[in-house]
Amino acid sequence: MGRETRAMQDDDATNPAMFWVLEGEALFKNKEGSGKACLDCHSTLKGVAARYPAQDAKQGRLLNLEGRINACRTERMGAAAFPYESRELLSLTAYVALQSRGAPIEVRKSDVGEKFFHLRQGQLNLSCAQCHDERWGKKLAGTPIPQAHPTGYPLYRLEWQNLGSLQRRLRNCLTGMRAEAWPFGAPELVELERYLMWRARGMKMESPAVRP
Amino acid sequence: MSGRRAIVTVPKQAKRGEVIEIKTLAQHAMETGYRRTQEGVAIARDIIRTFVCTYNGAEVFRMELHPAIAANPLIAFSTVATESGTLEFKWSGDNGYTVTETAGITVV
Q1: Is B61 helix (H, G, I), strand (E, B) or coil?
Q2: SS3 label, residue A161
Q3: φ, ψ for residue A81, nearest 5 deg
Q4: Fewer CB in 10 Å around end: N or C, chain B?
């Protein structure tokens, strides 16, 4: 990430993701379904985003932050789940993730995700590790290859001109490998998300970030 | 993005004659009009056309925007703090898009 992009991210006056945060804040206070709002239960969600994806006992499966929000909506609010990558879900996730800014990432390792990270896929027969472990710091199509530390999701990508989730980024990478991308919300993607977050353990959350 | 939010940042207080930096961010998709859908149908242009900033009624900054400008345009500029009062920001564009924001400033 360049100096200018970082400056844009660190100043709330120039970070375009703040539009989603503002909308997320409004949604957070909005009473829906059985007449409850997120705010009625959660006065603060400080540091929460730094602990996701996490295993959910009630659902019996791994949930990322988007999944957690939707589970809350369907189970506790009696409201409909937001579709993946919808403006509403991105906004709520951005608002919740912002409250964890600066919190160190604390996520348990996903062995399944690790397996996927090293799995060669697609027509190019590439694995995540070949770029993000073996070739980080080198260049791919003129841009530096990062170490795949998802510290700032959901983030505003200047290329997308929009806010996007980590799953959107992962599906981008998979398409680049000419592999068949897992659908949004697929358990494989959530496992991979958890593994990537574990790799970034101890790093500070910077959501909602800005990236080129 | 159909939201019509705008974020403006103006120093609350400034010395008379001081050059102040103003940052504005407007929520807009800035659809160029040159793109097509997957079915080949042209997507109509929908952009912000003009941005004007007035300081106590006097225009201090104006900008014309074009299709090549990115979504959610960030416009930063500077002006001289002359007197206490209000800065008004107005964005207007295609399909009746208008957003107005104001910010107060105290000049000491």
Answers
A1: strand
A2: coil
A3: -70, 145
A4: C
The correct CATH number of A3-98 out of 3.40.50.1010, 3.90.640.10, 1.10.760.10, 3.40.50.10750 is 1.10.760.10
Query: Cβ contact (<8 Å) for B5 and A22?
Result: yes
Beta bridge partners of B9: B23
Residue A19 and residue B74: Cβ atoms within 8 Å? Answer: no
Phi and psi, residue B42, nearest 5°? -65, 140
**Nearest Cα residue to A133 out of A149, A157, A121:** A149
Residue A14 CA to residue A144 CA, distance in Å, equals 24
Q: What is the pTM of this model?
A: 0.92
Pairing mode, strands B19-26 and B6-9: antiparallel
Interface ipTM > 0.95: no
Domains of chain B: 6-107 (2.60.40.10)
* H or E segment to which residue B79 belongs: strand B74-80
Q: How many CB pairs under 8 A join A and B?
A: 37
The answer to whether B13 faces chain A, any CB pair under 8 Å, is no
Q: Which candidate in A9, A161, A211 is best for mutational testing of the B interface (most B CBs within 10 A)?
A: A161
CB-nearest to B72 from A11, A19, A23 is A19
User: pLDDT per residue over A49-80, tens digit each?
Assistant: 999 999 998 889 999 999 999 999 999 999 99
